[in-house]
């Protein structure tokens, strides 16, 4: 069955004010590919499934996930830790897949999709929040590059952070094609070196020892099961919510979902498992804080593996950093009207300054912020445009700010905050999602006698699947 098309509302301008970009003419100079941050990606510019998948599946293949996977297993033991990892990956996969479906159908950025639900002014608040939060994640990954290479090889932190920041900004500046290329490099490199690390970790133990690992967190200080599930979800919930900035390039909704599934749960699960096995094998240097960071296993094996480990850090963390910076630039481009690539330079410089200030030392606080405040946003959009899609299609045009979705977001975040502090055995990320969705369903009422809102870019029949 073909669902009703979702109205397409630009976040900062009225639909009637949107005009097509003029044709530069046959005599104009070639330029970098248009990123279409201010309008839907035209059908002729949509990319094959393999290309969009390469943008996404390399994203979670990151050393940070090995850290998280190891920390979870250290606290819960291998069996319960793997259950928490699996639950988190499946929840994240469903969440990102639903939002990707909307992106593939419409070709719109996250900000334009959010405007349908929250109204143009409401979307400004939501998009501004996420586009700012993701700058912090960019800064975290840049800083982590410096601290990781300092711990493994003694490289000076400030100089390494500066070098990494410049490289990652250049990658994001190149646009969506560069993200696809780095994805093809980052994912296989992570798999190969992750397998090498596991083989090295198992030299003095056995698979049965790993499977029976009970964890060694101090009594009373262990993370609860729900907190570990939140850690998995929070690791990519910001860019996962803004998935439309990547999956809008898909040919249709179905291919957008398939592209997102290569990352969540597939690639995300693989990346977490590597760290989990390293800790379960007792081969992690500091499992309580650095989890399953396996770089030390590689750098202690001689020149070839050390060189590969250095390349791995830059490619691996560079992939995540560039994706986050791209998210931030596209989001702020919608809010300000500035060109994406100009914003990459400005935001990249800001993020680099934050990285030099040592932001990577506060990742637990950062994950708490992400797990509490971000999941309700996507839950409200999914509820509005998929669960209640007929209501959204019949909504009158012209509302600049819609109060009910904002109330649902605030309510979901508030309940998630309470759970985080008062019920750590539960998952605050899932609590926020469910609470926001239920609040939206309870408070939103279908408009009476309302004509369907006009769409600025009708979805072709071939793309509604």
Automatic annotation (TrEMBL):
Protein's name according to its UniProt entry: Cytosine permease
Its membrane topology: Multi-pass membrane protein
Family: Belongs to the purine-cytosine permease (2.A.39) family.
Region (Disordered): 1-43
Biased composition (Pro residues): 1-10
Highest taxon in the source lineage: Bacteria
InterPro entries (alphabetical): CodB, Pur-cyt_permease
Transmembrane helix as UniProt keyword: yes
UniProt cross-references to Pfam families, sorted A to Z: Transp_cyt_pur (PF02133)
Keyword Isomerase: no
